[in-house]
Amino acid sequence: MATCLVTGGAGFLGSHLCDHLLERGHRVICVDNLETGSLENISHIRDGAFRFAMLDITEHYEIDEPVDFVYHMASPASPIDYARLPLHTLKVGAYGTHNSLGLAKAKRARFLLASTSEVYGDPQVHPQPESYWGNVNPIGPRGVYDEAKRYAEALTMAYFRQQGVDTCIARIFNTFGPRMRPHDGRAVPTFLRQALADKPVTVFGDGTQTRSFCYVDDMVRGLVRLADSGVHEPVNLGNPDEMPLLEMAQLIVELTESRSEIVFEALPIDDPKVRQPDVSRASDLLGWRPEMSCREGLRKTIESAIKGLERTPTL
Ligand code: NAD
């Protein structure tokens, strides 16, 4: 049994990761300041091997027990959140990552950085392999997130090369599933909220921009596989099944049996035109590939969203 510290453990991905680690028999310390996460995401956990610590990781923090793995998931992650919290986003990427790497060093723990496909910016290479260095606008509205993650990757490699910390970097592509906040502004929860209310489903631009959506269970499995490996270089994790956003909106309308019409809105600044992971490295080094189809993942997400609506019908 290992002790795993999950920063951002009360968020969407972090809470699913906590569940998975507990299922595998590990102890879990969930560290979160609830900036974009919620206690509701972890309130179902009744396991003595789980503990929650309310901490802001941009400040120095300590944990008074041995730790074997640090999963560093904390960061605002949706464009709405990082537009609202630009300085915080930069601080989490810088001080938060620095503090969490320092903790991993002190505990001699394996460290996993939750990085993002956004390090590739609006890519000129498609699909994106890890060897591609990206095309990021540092001064645009998304720059605070993209550059924070790029800095966090550089910091992680410095701790690996110079400080001897056992690190790895997951470049996470769009992931969806239960517990995404209906108003977090990301495509799947937005389309879902609108379709379930029979309101117009708003697609940015003409909807031809593509994304590749990975179901959360596949992602969590990939994160743990990476943490358990001896790999140090960045690894793309995501579902290579690419689709135009308009198709995703149509699929959600179909699966929810909604009467919503699809309407088009202005494309946000620096919105990437394409996004598709090359997952050959994850497949070769970790033996990992996503297993859940987008359609099946959506069915599960819709089921959970409907249960949520029954509890709080005003969403
Ligand atoms: P989320 O907003 O649901 O979770 C982030 C968590 O971090 C929240 O619980 C939040 O309260 C916590 N947090 C933020 N600042 C903190 C601080 N200073 N101290 C302690 N906790 C803090 O987002 P998510 O979608 O679950 O994303 C998790 C991680 O995965 C992020 O690092 C994100 O960049 C990365 N990621 C996610 C996706 C995706 O599609 N969901 C894609 C790429 C990368």
Briefly say what this structure is.
The protein is of the alpha/beta class and 315 residues long. The chain contains 9 helices and 13 strands. Helix 1 (12-23) crosses helix 6 (216-228), helix 3 (86-107) packs parallel to helix 4 (143-163) and helix 5 (187-196) runs parallel beside helix 7.
Radius of gyration: 19 Å
Spatial strand arrangement across the major sheet:
3-2-1-4-5-6-11
**Category by helix and strand content:** alpha/beta
The percentage helix is 25-40%
What is the CATH H-level superfamily of the domain at 3-178 and 214-240 and 275-291?
Answer: NAD(P)-binding Rossmann-like Domain
The coarse silhouette is globular
CATH architecture of the domain at 3-178 and 214-240 and 275-291: 3-Layer(aba) Sandwich
The largest sheet is: 7 strands, parallel
The CATH topology of the domain at 3-178 and 214-240 and 275-291 comes to Rossmann fold
Overall number of strands: 13
Report on this structure.
- The strands form four sheets. The chain has a seven-stranded parallel beta sheet, with helices on both faces. Strands 7-10 form a two-stranded parallel ribbon.
- The chain contains nine helices and 13 strands.
- Helix content is 38%, strand content 17%.
- The termini are far apart.
- The chain is globular and about 55 Å long.
- The chain has a domain of 220 residues: Rossmann fold (3-Layer(aba) Sandwich).
- It is an alpha/beta fold.
- Bound molecules: nicotinamide-adenine-dinucleotide.
- Nicotinamide-adenine-dinucleotide binds next to helix 1, strand 2, helix 3 and strand 5.
